[in-house]
Amino acid sequence: MQAVIVSSFGGSDVLQVVERAEPAPGPGQVLIQVEAAGVGYVDVTARNGDYQPLPEPGFVPGVEAAGTVVAVGAAVDERWVGRRVFALGRNGAYAEAVVADLCDVVRLPDGVGAVDAVALGVNALVAHLALRRAHVEEGERVLVRGAGGGIGLMAAQLAAASGGVVTAITSSPERGERLRGLGVTHVRDRTAGRDGGAETYDVVVDPVAGAELGRHIEALRPNGRYLLVGAAGGAPAPDAFAGIMTTYHNSPSLFAFSLNSVDAATVGQAAAELFGRADRGALRAVVEERIPLAEARRAHERLESTPVFGKIVLRP
Ligand SMILES: NC(=O)c1ccc[n+]([C@@H]2O[C@H](COP(=O)([O-])OP(=O)(O)OC[C@H]3O[C@@H](n4cnc5c(N)ncnc54)[C@H](OP(=O)(O)O)[C@@H]3O)[C@@H](O)[C@H]2O)c1
């Protein structure tokens, strides 16, 4: 099969297209013929050698794949063969076929294609499982930072679907208009001066962190919930969390959320629910670009250059 490997840790030029023997599914595993693989920052950090546990160079990157089961290992029901599935694993998805543990595999509804499945993938899971902790109620004001990014796009849609009145912070009027089309009520352009003003929010979803984290914590209303889910804008200042103490009498809550802390069964249930919503038209996958597998290098360069709006998807 054709696969893309990280030949040594470094820039996008370390991605090489190679011919590899198809992997064989072991006990409790399935072999998936890949139709779409998601491209995300986790792959970039794996490529750079910044992601733990560190695999040996020569590994196939990619944690999200969707396609059809073509073989099963011992102790797996043969009826899995032929099923369309999504799998979230530990590398291996940038290939024509990937092996996955059955506990990491979710069946796809008929109405959700492979490209849409990986476009929802990790981003929708992070947004959904983090927002669950905030219990957004009807009419609550929700601020989404980095709203035009992968996690932000999903958080904005899911918060609006919960009845939240969503304000999106993004970086251009065009991105703002696209966000309005996904259910966002108010848009703030972070490139046009200060993006917060005196507005306050019941819930803040923050995949950005960076130097502005502190003042967004201070924008919480009484009993507000702050969901820190990433750091696309870099590490926050050392005193960024001081607002928790200065607004203490408002009972603010701070949740730091990583998908890595969630067990496979919970991830699987959440994925099934999200794919169900997409199947009913209640959640939209957003795809920035479909790129042939052999051009994985270009996919990484695209991700690391100008901001994307939605997922970059590799197609074998
Ligand atoms: N919690 C988890 O389990 C989990 C899982 C996967 C990834 N992550 C992390 O979550 C973060 C976001 O991931 P993502 O896939 O959503 O990334 P992404 O697609 O690059 O989106 C990040 C967005 O943040 C905004 N942004 C970027 N730099 C900024 C800056 N300096 N100041 C303000 N806003 C900025 C941009 O949105 P606008 O242009 O629209 O403003 C950008 O599109 C990353 O740090 C990633 O590693 C966390």
Automatic annotation (TrEMBL):
InterPro entries referenced in this protein's UniProt entry, alphabetically: ADH-like_N, ER, GroES-like_sf, NAD(P)-bd_dom_sf
Highest taxon of source: Bacteria
Domain Enoyl reductase (ER) per the UniProt entry, residue ranges: 10-314
NADP in keyword set: yes
Keywords: NADP, Oxidoreductase
Pfam families cross-referenced by the UniProt entry: ADH_N, ADH_zinc_N_2
UniProt GO MF annotations: NADPH binding; oxidoreductase activity, acting on NAD(P)H
The protein's name in its UniProt record: Oxidoreductase
UniProt source species: Streptomyces cacaoi
